[in-house]
């Protein structure tokens, strides 16, 4: 990843503001040349400030924007506090100044394979203009835990969550115990994330420093799923001083 694509800000809030500003600019540019734009949104504690900042951006025709999210736990009802559908509705979709053209939520309580088929059929109609993503503590992208599948072309896939990923979800306070954390999920595949025209990757916090270091300084390998971002031509990575603490400044 070229140095000019790595942006290091002073703190988490400034990191998120800068990432949102760049993502909003890309959306405006897309909507200036196309009838509609398609975005993908990540979830988790690292994305709180990013979504708040994106809501503050002006002059985006949200009624011409279609949205998808990266992943969802298998079998978790939308009413659960950890549901990513609930997360995105409560923190973003319902707070927009005007409704989006559509936001396609993943539902996993009525059959995983049928839902994967439904989501794959839906997203096949769009190309992703801007993907807002993060990196997990174990280096995952979406719920593609190491060793990640770099080869599957299907947009959404059924994945098993590893112990480190599940521990992160517990540590962030989404669940009361490790036993309560689901073991499987629907996730956007690595290949489909990489098809996005533009990627805005926001990764604040000291607990992400090791993952950022491994993703940027090591080889591209399924053992570090986020390392694949080194190969994306239009990925901008937004870090704060904590998450960037183990890399050399560009």
What does this structure look like?
The chain is α/β, with parallel strands linked by helices and 250 residues long. The protein has a single domain, classed as Rossmann fold. Helices cover 30% and strands 18% of the residues. It is built from 7 helices and 10 strands. It has a 7-stranded parallel sheet, with helices on both faces. A 3-stranded antiparallel sheet has the order 4-8-7. Strand 2, helix 2 and strand 3 form a beta-alpha-beta unit. Helix 1 crosses helix 2. It is globular, with a radius of gyration of 17 Å. The N and C termini lie close together (10 Å). The mean pLDDT is 95.
Highlighted features:
250 residues, alpha/beta, 7 helices, 30% helix, globular
Q: Let me know the average pLDDT.
A: 95
The CA-CA distance between the termini, in Å, is 10 Å
The CATH class name reads Alpha Beta
CATH architecture verdict: 3-Layer(aba) Sandwich
Per the CATH scheme, the topology name is Rossmann fold
Task: Describe the secondary-structure layout.
Layout: E1 6-9, H1 12-33, E2 37-41, H2 48-56, E3 65-69, E4 71-73, H3 84-91, E5 102-104, H4 112-123, E6 130-133, E7 156-160, H5 163-171, E8 184-188, H6 190-194, E9 198-203, H7 209-217, E10 235-240
Parallel strand pairs: 1-10, 2-3, 2-6, 3-5, 6-9, 9-10
Antiparallel strand pairs: 4-8, 7-8
Helix pairs in contact: 1-2
């Amino acid at each position: 990843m070229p140095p000019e694509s790595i942006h290091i800000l002073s703190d988490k809030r400034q990191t998120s503001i800068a990432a949102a500003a760049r993502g909003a600019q890309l959306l405006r540019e897309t909507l200036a040349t196309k009838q509609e734009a398609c975005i993908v949104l990540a979830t988790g504690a690292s994305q709180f400030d990013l979504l708040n900042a994106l809501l503050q951006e002006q002059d985006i025709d949200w009624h011409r924007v279609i949205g998808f999210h990266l992943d969802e736990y298998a079998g978790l009802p939308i009413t659960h506090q950890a549901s990513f559908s609930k997360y995105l509705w409560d923190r973003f979709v319902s707070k927009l100044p005007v409704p989006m053209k559509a936001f396609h939520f993943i539902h996993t309580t009525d059959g995983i394979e049928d839902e994967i088929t439904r989501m794959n059929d839906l997203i096949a109609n769009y190309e992703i203009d801007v993907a807002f993503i993060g990196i997990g503590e174990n280096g995952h992208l979406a719920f593609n835990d190491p060793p990640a599948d770099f080869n599957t072309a299907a947009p959404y896939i059924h994945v098993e969550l590893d112990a480190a990923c599940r521990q992160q979800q517990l540590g962030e306070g989404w669940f009361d115990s490790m036993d309560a954390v689901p073991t499987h999920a629907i996730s956007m595949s690595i290949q489909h994330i990489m098809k996005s025209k533009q990627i805005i990757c926001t990764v604040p916090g000291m607990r992400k420093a090791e993952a950022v270091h491994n993703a940027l300084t090591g080889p591209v390998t399924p053992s570090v799923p986020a390392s694949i971002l080194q190969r994306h031509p239009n990925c901008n990575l937004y870090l704060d001083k904590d998450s960037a603490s183990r890399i050399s400044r560009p």
